[in-house]
Amino acid sequence: MAKKKKADSGKRRAKSKQKAQEKRKLRLVKSRPKQEVQIGHRPGLPHLGAPEGFRPIPPAQAMMEYAKPLMELVQSDEEGFNDATQAGMLLWNYALSLEKGHENRKMEKEILEALRGCFDLDKRDAQALFIKMIERRSYLFPADIQPKGSPFMFIRKEVRHIIRPFDYDTLDLSDDIIPPDKKDKALVDRLNKLDNQINAGVDYDEYENLFFSLKDECQARFERWLTDKGLTQDVALFSGCLPIYLDFVYGYMHDDTIALKSVPSIYLVEFFEDFLLRKMMAEPKEYVCWPPALKLFYGFLQEKGYLESPKNIVDDISKVEPYFIKVLKKQSS
Length: 333
Description:
Largest sheet: 2 strands, antiparallel
Order of helices and strands: EHEHHHHHEHHHHEHHHH
Number of helices: 14
Structural class: mainly alpha
Number of domains: 2
Strand order of the largest sheet: 1-4
Strand content: under 5%
Radius of gyration: 22 Å
Helix content: 55-70%
């Protein structure tokens, strides 16, 4: 289990409107500032003891789940997302106050006005939405079952999903080797430089800028490779977990020194059963895509010259994959 957080995941660079929509669906749950240190082992999400019909969830994701009815009322862009999030926070905090017996008519009036303005509602519809959202918090997060002294919450499972393993027959990619171009070679050189700094015990502050730029470049070059291989759909979905995976490998201090070339199977278990689920909010079918996505990523790294063979780590991912499916089933059904 990761013991110490090294850095905030950083702000992602501005993207197009389409990218903003992808962010909204696959929004990263940001880390705490790098100065803050977390020490000690804890169980992964599936082992936190959520009651039947509930699942554990980080607070930031809890807010996103709570605000889903508000998200449905706005445009699928960054401005709409921000409006719904701000309204959700107001309603969440007031619902929490009501649970503690603190009623505030003035605050209620201000929230109603905010709802009318954000979602273009008349007084009656705003009042109905207000009541719905106040009741929603108690329904999703009953106070009597919340874990004590934990950074996580237990949320009611609103929708039951049928989780099936990824259908590899749907991947019809070319077997032709795509030699590295100039940009690929530059990427590999920088990855090796990062690995050398990690192995030399260089402080995080000294390689932070290199690491952040590599995350964007890895994702961009991987997407290009997938397209060249013949993938025509879900390219962004397959590349979507790369920033999280790179954060896990290079942005956290583990018990052992690791790099993309050498991620022990025990860390792969940690990544899939806990880290990915905490840091990325997505639909269950999207989580299912990410073991095959990482296998493809290691194929990309081999073709571009970063490692001689991806077989060992791809085999390890394959061994972890059935367990990850069981975790998703436990979380979603």
